[in-house]
Each structure stands twice: as structure tokens, then as C-alpha cells.
Write the C-alpha cells for this entry.
Amino acid sequence: MNIRLCAAASAASALLATAPLAAGAQPTAGSPVAQTSIPISVRSCTVLAYSASSPNQLFYIQTGPPSQSNRTYSDGLKISYVNVSSKVIARVGFRVTYGGKSERVIDAGTISPGVTIDRTFGDDFSGGPYFGPQPSECRVLGVRYKDGTVWRNTATPAP
């Protein structure tokens, strides 16, 4: 009985080891890959601006010397995305590059299938020079589903 069970386990293990992973998917230790296609569709990724001549205050608390008038600064990041998978997501990781600086941005919560999420991240790209609203890169790095499975992006280009 033990010999048959070990042989069956070895055969199943060999079969799984030879099965190819889909493009962009990578297994994570202890967590099976949940699906092969990108589970998040990024609708927009925008760096926000603040002009020192405007009457509104910065989104964040500014430290250091007073800003120069008529100068525009970056003032956070807004990402709009949709969960296009069939499963509830707990965390999404993004890679955003702007003005030569890359940030890993994490959004956590209950992200249901088909729902559009609009998030503003005030600490990312705030207070620096403003080069326009579009970052040079904004892509999904990975997803953790509520059931504990993980999807990681290893090959897809930035949207």
C-alpha cells in the first residue's frame, strides 16, 4: 500500500514539475499560482499636481523652505483599476516609475470581481518636480487573493 501511494505521489509530482507555467505567472513558495492571465486591468495611472500659486493646500504636510510661487509640484498618485478575475483579491502590488524614480505601491482591502477601484496614494511622488500626469511605467506586479493564492507578473510589459 505504501509503495503504491509513494509511486502515485511521485508520478503526480513529476507531472506537475513538467507542466509549463503560463506567461507572466510564477509560483510562490507555499501558495499555488491562482490563474495565468493578469487579474487586474489598470484603467488609469496619474501623477497629481499642485501649483504653489493656487489657493489650495498640498495634500501632504510640507516641510523645509517655503515653495516658490508659480511652480508646480507632484502631489500624489491616483490609480484606477478593475479586478477582472473571478476571485476576491486582498492585495495588489503595482510598480510605478515617474521622473526616473520607481515606487512599489500596495493597495489592500476587499477587491471584488468586476468592481472599479479608484485610489489616491498621497506619499508616492509627492513634493518633487512635476513632469506631467503620465508615469513612464505603471504595471501590476502581483496579486494576493483572499483564499491565499498568489499571482505574480514576471513578463508582461507596462500598460
Observations:
- The chain is about 10% helix and 45% strand.
- The first helix runs from residue 2 to 18.
- Residues 24 and 46 are 24 Å apart (CA to CA).
- Residues 1-35 have pLDDT under 50 and may be disordered.
